[in-house]
Specification:
Length: about 325
């Protein structure tokens, strides 16, 4: 079957089908989806009355304009990115830097509030209040304490909360829906099948690792209001000890969950790294990748997709898919 690349990009009130090139980056480790669109420095606008007008491309757009990018083959296109113009670079070609729905939170200023005892969901409701952003239904109801926010933007609040959890908490968008929770919780709505060296361009760059090769013990501490300390440990006794103190969590169950999530990031059996594909099958960060490896069948399984980088332009369309932990 012959595949013909198609694109449809809408910025504000303007729609066009061709670009020099574009790049879209989405990751479970970044709350900001990003896209860079390279367009001709000058363009011809076709009006509804069929008249045309030659214009400087950079002058037709403004920061904050809504952006939709659809890509595909043979007329069948998928929405790859939705967001807003963050910056316009009047270069040759003209570059349009775009950001996903985190752009709204970045520009929501002056959040000032505090809680002695609260939950993650309550904090996030305050962050997105008054915006069109939705909260993911699976955000955990984690208890927090002594949270103070003073004249911050929405993204600064997210950074602050992430920092309290020592790298075990992530925040990312699925279009206009914000998820925040432990990094490798399986929330995938879809599983995409890949057979290495068949519908992947390069599967040989993946490296296989074994949990037994990484001897790690995670130790987390929390100091209670009476001065006593709670400690939870998980991993391999005698291994390299990773110790942290968590200040915002007020229950032992959550502390244990955080320790186990931190261990998963360091020790698992399975592939690590990335591989390239064409634009089909469609895939998103946070989905599952079902990998089949006929050379090494024991390495097949379901993997968490950490990030997806999509490029499109005169040289074709490709995706780079970065794997996280092996789920099963």
């Amino acid at each position: 079957m012959h595949f013909v690349l198609n694109s449809l990009i809408q910025i504000g009130n303007f729609r066009f089908k061709g670009v020099h090139n574009l790049k879209i980056e989405k990751s479970i480790h970044e709350y900001a989806d990003r896209a860079v669109i390279a367009l001709p420095t000058s363009s011809v606008i076709k009006h509804k009355n069929i008249t045309t007008e030659s214009v400087q491309t950079a002058h037709r757009f403004k920061v904050g304009d809504k952006v939709n990018i659809l890509l595909g083959y043979n007329g069948k296109k998928k929405e790859e990115f939705v967001g807003f113009i963050k910056q316009i670079n009047p270069t040759t070609p003209c570059e349009i830097e775009c950001e996903g729905y985190s752009w709204i939170l970045r520009n929501k200023k002056n959040i000032t509030t505090s809680w002695k005892n609260t939950t993650l969901i309550e904090v996030l409701k305050e962050v997105v209040k008054g915006t069109e952003i939705k909260l993911h239904k699976d955000i955990p109801n984690v208890s927090l304490r002594n949270i103070v926010i003073n004249n911050a933007s929405g993204t600064q609040v997210i950074e602050y909360i992430k920092g309290l959890f020592k790298g075990t908490l992530t925040a990312y968008f699925i279009d206009d829906t914000l998820y925040m929770g432990l990094t490798y919780i399986d929330l995938a709505i879809k599983t995409v099948k890949y057979r290495l060296r068949w519908n992947t361009i390069d599967g040989d760059s993946l490296k296989f690792k074994r949990a037994d090769d990484v001897q790690v013990q995670i130790e987390l501490n929390f100091k209670k209001s009476d001065g006593s300390q709670i400690t939870t440990k998980t991993g391999t006794p005698g291994g390299i000890v990773r110790t942290d103190t968590i200040t915002a969590v007020s229950d032992e169950k959550t502390l244990k969950e955080i320790a186990e999530a931190k261990l998963k990031q360091e020790a698992f059996d399975g592939y690590e790294g990335s591989f390239d594909t064409k634009l089909i099958p469609f895939v998103q960060h946070g989905w599952r990748a079902e990998l089949e490896d006929r050379l090494f069948p024991e390495r097949s399984g379901n993997y968490f997709i950490e990030s997806v980088t999509t490029t499109f332009g005169e040289n074709g369309g490709t995706r780079t898919i970065e794997l996280g932990i092996k789920l099963s």
